[in-house]
Each structure stands twice: as structure tokens, then as C-alpha cells.
Amino acid sequence: RLSRPSYIFYRTDDVLAPHLKRLPALPTNVIAELLDGGPPGLIAKADAVFATHAKEATVIDSVGCVDSARATTRAVIALPEGDLAYRLIPGSGGEVVVHLHDIGSPARIPVTTDHAAMTLVPDLPGHGASRDWMQDQCAPEAIARALVALTESLGLERVTIVAIGGSCPIGVAYANLIGTRCTKLTLQNAIALDDAERTQFLGLLPDLSVTSTGAQLLAAWNYARLKYLFWPWLPQNGTAVRQTMAPAPRRVHADAVEILRAGSCFQALWREALTVDLARSIEGLRCPLDLLCADESEPLRLAVRLASAAGLSPADAMAKNEGWKTWRK
Q: φ, ψ for residue 121 (rounded to 5)?
């Protein structure tokens, strides 16, 4: 709280100038200006200074500039449920693969993909360039309907679907909606939890409410790290520790940014995804199904339980899926 008159200083010099290219035409001297009005006056004057010197900048994080930058790699389609962004990557073959990324992670193309296929990579609600959706529209069925509308708008008739982690219920709902137009569905590291595990998992989701202290930033980072080192659906004790090296900071950072970007959609998507009975949803599939999981104890435990409930049979992993355990329908 400021009770005295406030001063605002602006300074740049030849040392700083190379690092301030995004703010062209800044003054090269120091100016001190006496301001009246306490903190509000200081804030208003600072905003005015930066608005003046940044209005021609090309990399300021304004909504317009961000949308323009994203448009170079993504397209956005307006749907009744909400705007959905996507990338469409041409391929040399006739197959079309739709990749659904995990909740709270950037859209990444798995290494198991056929890179000759045309690849459609949608951003889940709140993720990437997709805008926030209303929380009651974050159910897998609603997102699946949006994906059907997206693929139909692109003239894609038959698709292979690959879903990862929290997007697996979306992938199953999508496959059920398009029926025989789905040539194959692959679920990777599906998270099918019992009641106790679901409660534990949801209780650990970060509070992303914006605070003046920036506590939401630390919460997102801690959760992004937590999911690599622990099983967040288990009680947090020594037995939940994953026996693995710590994740690369760059990967944790990318996930933390995506969690923050997803905002209110992050928890809504997880709540809705974990209410789906995956085994029962799988029963109605009219397309071939592969259930893949990493060759580690906890993913195997969940995969075995899901495969048993859904009546899937173990299958030998193909060479390109080395390191994965596979069940097939």
C-alpha cells in the first residue's frame, strides 16, 4: 500500500537493447516522472507506457497475436459444444489416424504411429488452441460428437483412432458413434480406476484458481511432476513411488503449461472421464481394438483388470510396439 507519491522509471541502454527487440523504439535514457494517485495512478501510467511502445510489437502475448500465431499450425472449427482446434498433417498413404492426447498434456504424436498416414490431431477443450468449454460440455460423449462433426467437415470417412490416458473414454465414445467407419481403436495406458482410486486421484488434482501469489503455477508444476514420479490414484506413501528416473524438466514444463492453459476444463475433463465405465463401453464396439500399456507394474495392473472386465485377449506386441503389453478384441 503506497501512501507517498510514486515514481515510474523507464530505462534502456545499448546492453539491454538486443534483448528488447520485441519492444521497438524504447527510450535510451532514464526518465523519472512524479505521479499522483497512489497505486492506481502508477498502474495506469505503466500500462500507458507499455501500450505506447509495444503497440507495433509482433510477439506481445495478446489474444490477437497468440491466435494469429496458432493459426499458422492449427485451424479452429466452431461447434455447438465449443471451439475445437486441430492440426491436419498430410500423409503419403490412404489411412487417416486421429490422435487424442492425454488430459493435461500437449498434443503429441506417439512413436507407435504410422507416419505415412494422414494424421488429425485435435486439441482437447481448453488445451492448445481450443478455447475453454462449459464444464457440463466436457463429457466424453459431447467431445466425441464434436470430433464426428470435425471429421465430417474435413470429408474424412474412415479413421483409425489412437487415444492416450485420460482421453481413452473419449476415443471409445468416438468409435461407438461412427461404428464401422472406425477401422481400429487403440487405447494406450487407459486409466480405469475403482471408487477408492478415483477419489484419491480427483483429490490430488491441482487448484488452478488464479491467486495474487501465483500459487496455481506451483500447483500445476507439482502435479505435472507428481504424475511422472507417483501413481496419483494411490495413497501417497512410499509404495506409490514409481521406480524411474525423474522426468525431463522440459517435459514437466510443457505439461504444467498445458494444465494451466486448460484451467477449469482440466478438472472437468478428468471428472467426466473417470465416471465412464470403460469395460462396458468397450463391449459395444464394432471395430477392432488394441489395448496397450507400458511394461511397468502399475499400468499392467490397471490394464489386466480392464482387459479381464472387457473380455480382451493377450496378444504379442508387434515390433513397432516393443516395450508395450497388448490385449486385443
A: -120, 95
